[in-house]
Amino acid sequence: MKPIFCYQVPVVVGSGISGGAIAMMDSDIVIYDKGRILGGRVSSKTKDSVSYDFGATMFRDLMEVHWLGGETEYSISEIWSSKQVQFPTKPIYDQFHFYPTKGMSDLVSGMMGKVKPIQGHTLKRIESPDKETWNLEFYNSETKVSEWISTHNVILTLPIPQILEIFNRSEEDPKLERWADFLEPFNDYRRTLVSYFYWDKWKPNWKSLSLDPSLSIPITTTLERGIDWEYQSWESIKYPDEFEKGSALLVQFGSKFSEAHYEDWMDENRNPTEKYKDYLLHGLREKFDAPPPNLIWNHRWKYAQARMPLLGKEGPLRLDTESFSEWKSLCKETRITILGDWLFGSKIERIIGGIYFLSHNGLL
Ligand SMILES: Cc1cc2nc3c(=O)[nH]c(=O)nc-3n(C[C@H](O)[C@H](O)[C@H](O)COP(=O)(O)OP(=O)(O)OC[C@H]3O[C@@H](n4cnc5c(N)ncnc54)[C@H](O)[C@@H]3O)c2cc1C
Questions:
Q1: CB 234 within 8 Å of CB 211
Q2: Residue 343, SS3?
Q3: What value, to the nearest 5°, has the Cα angle with vertex 305 and ends 108 and 196?
Q4: Distance 290 CA to ligand 1 centre (A)
Q5: CA 105 to ligand 1 center in whole angstroms
Q6: Do 345 and 208 share a structural domain?
């Protein structure tokens, strides 16, 4: 095995919101990702000329960090301004939440700036030939060939199970073993099944759903934790220009439902399997008095959200903890930094604000 590139800059794996925030802080990096498009769990899709978000649907502008006894509040939009990152956003739900008017994936591409991630490359193995170097093996899905590259510093932003798979495939290495042991308590993710419905000539009765698209800050979502149709986001209110006559709804199903129905949820074209098609049509009729939609598109997120993040799920990121000190030491001593929602919590603002804070304070 001979590396085809020897990078003198850090190699980041993952072009999701974490990868984007890292690129915003320092463009002197290289990013690899296995997906065809960037964004990871903050992705938008265009189908039949309408776009919609099928992962995250909005973000909060404010977050807080507690460190060395001090408390600092950050506004994500101010962080973007300070880094010359620009894309139009609109308020949604209340005055603290926003979404980019061209789709959530704009968040990621906006922060990437001039960094162009190398997509379609799956990290398979990671090995350290000497104290200073990491060799990484990527499978290139276009050429169907493996490529080795080398670097001095690696940043992994994947969900923990995907990282452990890579470590298990790699040669035994005490540094990887230390990381695997450290990550174990945080390796807990919920699954989420998703359905997207599109009607070209039908709109719901907004009043009966207690929604009002004409408000200056429209409420577009309903959340009832624990029920099957847990989270409903009327994407057509977010992107009104694309839905003059029709409408679109994104449903994220509850965790119990998603766990139980994960395997048979969709066919290879992401259409619902027969069993679920009837179930979905029935649900639409019951809940919204909706006719059968022109399009149903299903998706499933295996590692949707980290359940046990090291820095907490909600509230400020609390960095004055032993486990955070251990995280810092591991990053330094192994030359591998591992971060993502298992560290900051599954919220866009926590990840962006967290990476900004770490980078600003020389911790990244
Ligand atoms: C359905 C859903 C709804 C959500 N709603 C919201 C919301 O409204 N607001 C909010 O704040 N948060 C929301 N979240 C959470 C938020 O989307 C995530 O916390 C965040 O996007 C995680 O970003 P990340 O970059 O850390 O990870 P990811 O987005 O998962 O990025 C990791 C990247 O690594 C790549 N990858 C994986 N394995 C490999 C490999 N072996 N080699 C190379 N690349 C690899 C993947 O392709 C991916 O692009 C939601 C999440 C889901 C799933």
A1: yes
A2: helix
A3: 70
A4: 31
A5: 11
A6: no
Residue 332 lies in a domain: yes
Asked whether residue 99 is assigned to any structural domain, the reply reads: no
User: Which atom of ligand 1 is nearest to 58's Cα?
Assistant: 8
Query: Does 151 share its domain with 293?
Result: no
How high is the ipTM of this complex?
0.99
Furthest-apart CA atoms within the chain: distance in Å: 65
16 is a domain residue: yes
Question: pLDDT tens digits, residue range 204-242?
Answer: 999 988 888 889 898 889 899 989 999 999 999 998 888
Q: Say whether both 182 and 195 belong to one domain.
A: no
348 lines ligand 1 (CB under 6 A): yes
Residue 13 and residue 161 in one domain = yes
Amino acid at 301: W
Task: Look up the domain containing 260 and give its range.
Answer: 189-305
Q: Which amino acid is at 71?
A: E
- Shared-domain flag, residues 202 and 283: yes
Q: What are the CA-CA distances from residue 181 to residues 3, 55, 184 (Å)?
A: 29, 29, 5
Question: What's the total number of domains in the chain?
Answer: 2
Does 95 fall in a domain? no
Identify any residues that bridge with 65 across adjacent strands, giving them in sequence order.
Answer: 72, 317
Same domain, residue pair 141 and 221: no
Structure token digits, residue 57 = 């649907």
Confidence of residue 199 (pLDDT cuts 50, 70, 90): very high
CA distances from 58 to 17, 103, 188, 279 (A): 13, 10, 23, 27
Residue 109 near ligand 1, beta carbon < 6 Å:
no
Q: Are residues 176 and 284 in the same domain?
A: no
| DSSP letter string, 227-290 | STT-EEEEHHHHSGGG-SS-EEEEEE--HHHHHHHSTTSB-TTSPBPHHHHHHHHHHHHHHH-P
